[in-house]
Design brief:
Length: 332
């Protein structure tokens, strides 16, 4: 038998994946096996990668895949945008369509004793129904295709149930198709772990509170905003526009148009934001108007005189005059 050092190997040419000699040299010198494996995966996928799917394909922890991607960036082997030289990497979300899973594949996964079987049981319990074949395929797609861990999927299901209850009342349950759509939105937002999910839901709750406050300012009650109205409000929230400014702009809108003109209101707010006006005081100063000050409490005095009305202590003549006034009241 020949020594290993003298042996040569020939890779089959069919469906070959090639990398440049320079890239191979960099990978070899790095000594990073995970980075080399992830690089081959990126090349095999035509420059596109989803870290979650790559982790399942390569049988690596997702954190190791993420670390390998950062290592490849530092080595100059991949770029975030297409360009000459190294292949590009695209971390865009996966397409909103499932691979063609068969129900037999899904049922085999359930009977194999994997954690997916436990997930199915809990989801059926919370939705109050037995999942259909189509439901099972879609749930399996969230688990296998999107690469969401079972605890994240369960958190997602509970979130969708709570949302449906809030919108439509107690007893209404979301469909698996609806839950699947929300799962794709979570994937686009980079929600991969239970911590990600909790942080994302908290952010949504804060946005919802801001939206409720804005709806009260705009005197929209007993109805949900339309899709267009919602986009306007979400835009203001994203820009960080203070509620007091929205109230001020709403008042101006009513004065000028006599109604809630969304486009007019949006134009006012965005012009203030572009000018760096963040408070009502900023707007008043920009308009050349005096700032509104809270009314002072205490005894009022004439301009230029001492007294609590202008923040100064009363002088001796004021005190003497008040003493004489009190004596008259007592009949002295």
């Amino acid at each position: 038998m020949k020594p290993l050092a003298d042996m040569r190997y020939v890779l089959p040419p069919a469906d070959a994946v090639t990398i440049s000699g320079a890239a191979a040299d960099v990978l070899i010198r790095s000594g990073d096996g995970a980075a080399a494996l992830v690089y081959l995966h990126i090349a095999r996928c035509g420059g596109e990668i989803s870290p979650g799917r790559a982790a399942k394909t390569l049988n690596l922890p997702e954190k190791d895949v993420a670390a390998a991607i950062e290592r490849l960036f530092s080595l100059g082997l991949i770029k975030r945008a297409s360009g000459e030289g190294a292949p590009a990497i695209k971390t865009a979300p996966v397409k909103d369509e499932l691979p063609e899973y068969s129900i037999e594949e899904v049922r085999h996964e359930i009977t194999s004793g994997s954690v997916f079987a436990a997930l199915v049981k809990e989801v059926q319990k919370d939705l109050g129904k037995i999942l259909t074949s189509d439901d099972l395929v879609r749930l399996f797609g969230m688990y296998d295709y999107l690469g969401l861990p079972p605890d994240v999927i369960y958190h997602l299901v509970r979130f969708c149930i709570d949302e449906h209850t809030r919108r439509y009342g107690e007893g209404r349950r979301p469909t698996i198709r609806y839950i699947e759509k929300v799962a794709y939105s979570w994937e686009r937002e980079g929600v991969k772990t239970l911590e990600d999910a909790e942080a994302y839901i908290s952010r949504l709750e804060r946005q919802r509170d801001r939206m409720s406050e804005i709806l009260r300012i705009l005197q929209i009650r007993d109805r949900l905003p339309s899709a267009t109205e919602r986009r306007y409000i979400e835009g203001w929230v994203e820009l960080g526009i203070a509620p007091e400014l929205i109230e001020m702009a709403y008042d101006k809108t009513l004065v000028q148009t006599g109604r809630l003109a969304w486009k007019y209101l949006d134009t006012i707010l965005k012009s203030w934001h572009a000018a760096g006006l963040k408070t009502t005081q900023d707007v008043l100063r920009a308009d050349g108007k005096p700032e509104k000050k809270p009314a002072a409490s205490g005894y009022g005095t004439a301009p230029g005189r001492g007294g609590a009305g202008n923040g100064a202590m009363p002088d001796e003549s004021d005190i003497k005059r008040m003493e004489n006034f009190l004596k008259k009241l007592k009949g002295e």
